[in-house]
Specification:
single chain; about 325 residues; Ferritin; 3 domains
């Protein structure tokens, strides 16, 4: 193999690697669509997937122009890689999944830069221009993921919601920081009772659905009642612990947990007279909050009570704004 053909082969190899990584990127974006909590985020993720597909097409075209063989297995590899990644994430909090997405984007951008230099050294100006476009695209995506991570760090997630398994893992991680063993044991017991009660009820529902619709409805009602009772007991116990615990650390932990659940009193919210405000007044007050933790407390309270869509959207967008300020600080 001549020096020239060896260099061409090296460039082809990089294009193949980029093609497979880009197809993985597109599949990951499609998985994230199902986790989007806001319509604009969902549309943006769908757009990201389409753009990744377009980049794949451009890379494949460049590969053919160099005389390379189309990567017929690339799409399959991308799907399998994305599936493996998402499956692995279920044993981790959502933040770990986003950090994995960030690592993928950095890998893509670094390979794009390397490929651009290879192309420039071989006077392949069209490929070099393509790589410059891809570098800009991956830089933009990196900033987008950093913003989502900042939202999570400030008490989210907001734009992306964890799967049920990730939510459970995240809860375990948070409860591990509760300073008293008794507090952690109580919350774990409540969660276990709730999970067992609802799982058992829904299992019964599945087994009798085809033969006894009335029984199905009864079991569903029992499942809902079980959840309500356990939740009420949990909330009452947390409120009691906050009030009577001799440990300041335990009282603070109980209060923080109540804030996350949205079960604190309206008088404890960072917005005065919250319950008497109109939607417009609440939205204006939320825009005036400068602390992400305060916005998160309001968001949790609203979700647990009136659950007004406009107010929720305002709080979520305010958290995004504060996360962006944090990232750019």
């Amino acid at each position: 193999m001549t020096k020239s053909s060896a260099a061409t082969q090296a460039l082809q190899n990089e294009l193949v690697a980029l093609l497979r990584l880009t197809r993985t990127e597109a599949q990951v974006a499609r998985v994230r669509v199902s986790q989007a909590r806001r319509d604009e985020i969902r549309r943006e993720l769908e757009k990201n997937a389409r753009k990744a597909d377009a980049r794949s097409t451009r890379i494949q075209k460049a590969l053919r122009q160099l005389g390379g063989t189309p990567d017929v297995f690339g799409d399959t590899v991308g799907r399998v890689t994305a599936l493996t990644k998402v499956t692995t994430e279920q044993a981790q909090p959502l933040s770990e999944g986003l950090l994995g997405d960030l690592a993928l984007e950095h890998q893509l951008r670094d390979r794009v830069v390397f490929t651009r230099v290879l192309a420039e050294s071989q006077d392949e100006s069209k490929i070099a221009d393509l790589m410059a476009d891809l570098e800009d695209a991956h830089t933009e995506t990196i900033e987008w993921i950093r913003l989502r991570l900042a939202e999570v760090a400030q008490g989210g997630p907001v734009a992306l919601a964890p799967t049920p398994t990730q939510a459970a893992v995240g809860a375990v991680t948070r409860f591990a920081t509760i300073p008293t063993r008794r507090s952690a044991a109580f919350v774990n017991m409540a969660a276990e009772v709730l999970a067992r009660g609802r799982a058992a009820a829904l299992s019964t529902v599945d087994s009798v659905r085809d033969t006894a619709e009335s029984t199905v409805e009864s079991v569903r009602e029992t499942a809902d009642a079980t959840e309500e009772v356990v939740s009420a007991g949990r909330d009452a116990a947390l409120a009691r612990a906050e009030k009577v615990s001799p440990s300041a650390a335990a009282r603070n932990a109980a209060h923080r947990t109540r804030e996350k659940l949205g079960t604190i009193d309206a008088a404890d919210l960072p917005i005065r007279g919250y319950e008497g405000l109109t939607n417009a007044e609440v939205n204006e007050a939320i825009h005036g909050l400068e602390d992400a933790e305060q916005v998160r407390i309001v968001l949790s309270f609203e979700e647990a009570h009136k659950n007004r869509k406009r107010v929720l959207n305002t709080a979520q967008k305010r958290l995004t704004e504060l996360a962006e300020v944090s990232v750019n600080a």
